[in-house]
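BUG: 3D viewer hangs when loading the predicted structure for this chain

Environment: internal workstation, default settings.
Expected: structure renders.
Actual: progress bar stalls at 90%.

Input used:
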Amino acid sequence: MLIEKIKKGNDRAFRILVEKYRTYVFHTVYGVLRNEKDAEDAAQEVFMKIYASLPQYDNQGFKTWITRIAVNHAIDMKRKKMRRKEEMNVEYEETSHSPTGDSVEWLVMKREQQYLIRKRLDELPDNYRTVVEGFYIKEQTYEELANELGVKAKTIEVRLYRARQWMKKHWKEDDFS
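Structure tokens produced before the viewer hung:
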């Protein structure tokens, strides 16, 4: 099996694996990041993570396993990018005494969008809202949320999945722009 060869240090086998799943991994991370350059970078990083994590792989659903790695990595990248934008905004607000018209307009639009998102979160069913706010806004892990709510981490994962499905069904992307 290809994975066993890779675990034994066969670099050629890893190149074959990369060729086989390159497009799949790219499309997976692109689905989260929505930016081609970021998705290309993320896909390369995902393959490095796959290579490093192969010793822990236990031969159960390889495609599911790499999908989980890819999605988690893409979400992490997206969070980091959002944090950097927020930090830049804070720096801008702290250092700027007389912002230009465009900057003020941008800040007002951003605040309106944040208000709209918070308002829309109130539309979520309670059990979904709690995990969405905890995971995406407070940036808690599944384990932290599970401890807080007195449930298993898998329950948090399922609720987040169902919350995303609910949002896809009930909300349009245009509602937030």
